[in-house]
Specification:
CATH superfamily: STAS domain
Shape: globular
Mean pLDDT: 90
Radius of gyration: 15 Å
Strand order of the largest sheet: 1-2-3-4-5
Distance between the termini: 45 Å
Strand content: 25-35%
Amino acid sequence: MAGDIDHAEAHARALDFSVETRTDDGVSIVTVVGQADLHTAPDLRAVLGDVVDGGSRLVLVDLTGATFIDSMTLGVLLGALKRVASVDGRLALVIPDRHLRRVFELTSLDRVFTIVDSLPEATALLRKGGAPA
């Protein structure tokens, strides 16, 4: 019975998660909403892989709507950063929420990723050639 509860909780978390992509003048924007965790990280990994495999060299991950990020998601984002760098691309993160940003600071990943507060700031930065992967 406990297994059923764990499965139900995982399903509920997955329902609280979405990831969408769009392109804005050469910048691929991956928008994450909800809880990005162990259960949803494979979906995010697949979307980011598809974006890079599809030829995108300027990638923006918008975490404005994210309510939670765990270590699995951090690993997915690091993998995406490496993948984009391997094709001479650039990646930036939009994280306006100070609590989510704190996760990156505590893990020193704020030194690895280019993190900005807004979508317009990030797209302008990527288009100007900033945010090296």
